[in-house]
Write a structure and sequence with these properties.
Elements lengths: L1 H17 L13 E5 L7 E5 L11 E5 L13 H10 L4 E5 L10 H17 L1 H4 L6 E6 L1 H12 L7 E5 L5 H6 L6 H9 L8 H4 L13 E6 L7 H13 L4 E6 L8 H18 L1
Parallel strand pairs: 3-4, 3-5, 5-6, 6-7, 7-8
Antiparallel strand pairs: 1-2, 2-4
């Protein structure tokens, strides 16, 4: 029951807003749907390689959906896929599902899934005709948390850049300084124990794995976000700055846990500029 409530806490606003991304006509390009990177039914991805791709030049976007770690699917980012096709037509897009948290699936398994998916993409770079030195992680909410962990903790394959939409970054601070009285109880249920008794809080906090080699990171957050407080992204940026890592934090003063319309268009504009400077 607590895990379900944890999910609902992080899903409520997210579900309302990610479905309202920019709308464009679907492109008639190669697609490989429901590609397996593991044995579980949720270890699947949809792959959208661009035309005229090559292992020398073609970069990739690896998308991770949100949903409080316990819900959601890659299909919630379908409109994001269409927007990226329109705005970044030279990129291959990998839209990934991962096992959802349950009594038998925990953060560790989710981390393993993301790593397996990225390793699968790298191992099949020749088949997809992509450059594995140009991999960009894009995560939303819980998916952003997992994207940051993958990019900061694992050195191979090296991630070239991360796009973080309001992802939790410091679970210890999230527990010790909650913006909602329920958060510590929900985290105890999801992770087990407290930061004082369980080292997993540290291992699950992306801020603890930042160093001078950390990939460039673009961060988006709504100042009115009552699900993941903006302080999480501010702490992330502070740690990136301390280590001399290229970064940019965009805070939308009137946005909450997700946004749409002109604000979302501005996010995509910012992503385009950021990636053109880095990739």
């Amino acid at each position: 029951m607590k895990i379900l409530f944890f999910s609902l806490l992080f899903m409520t606003v997210y579900t309302m807003n990610t479905s309202a991304a920019e709308t464009y006509n679907t492109f008639n390009t190669d697609t490989f749907l429901n590609v397996s990177y593991g044995d579980n039914a949720l270890q699947r991805m949809d792959v959208y390689p661009p035309a005229n791709r090559s292992q020398t030049n073609t970069p990739s976007l690896i998308l991770l959906h949100g949903g409080g770690w316990t819900n959601g699917s890659r299909h919630s980012l379908a409109s994001y896929v269409d927007s990226f096709k329109r705005r970044l037509p030279q990129y291959a897009i990998f839209n990934i599902d991962y096992r959802l948290m349950s009594p038998v699936i925990h953060f560790t398994e989710q981390e393993e899934d993301i790593k397996s998916a990225v390793d699968f993409i790298a191992a099949n770079a020749g088949s997809y005709n992509i450059n594995i030195s140009k991999l960009v992680m894009v995560g939303v909410s819980a998916g952003a948390h997992l994207a940051l962990l993958q990019s900061y903790k694992n050195k191979q394959p090296q991630i070239a850049a991360i796009i973080d939409f309001f992802g939790p970054a410091d679970l210890i601070d999230m527990y010790n300084n909650p913006w909602n009285a329920m958060i510590p109880h929900l985290m105890e249920s999801a992770i087990g124990g407290t930061p004082q008794t369980n080292n997993a809080y540290k291992e699950l906090s992306p801020v603890n794995f930042i160093n001078t080699y950390t990939p460039p990171t673009l961060i988006f957050h709504g100042k009115q976000d009552y699900l993941v407080d903006v302080s999480q992204s501010q702490a992330l940026q502070k740690k990136l700055e301390q280590n001399g890592v290229r970064n940019k934090l965009v805070v939308y003063s009137n946005a909450g846990h997700g946004w749409f319309g002109n604000t979302l268009s501005n996010s995509f504009d910012t992503i385009e500029i950021f990636l053109k400077e880095i990739i």
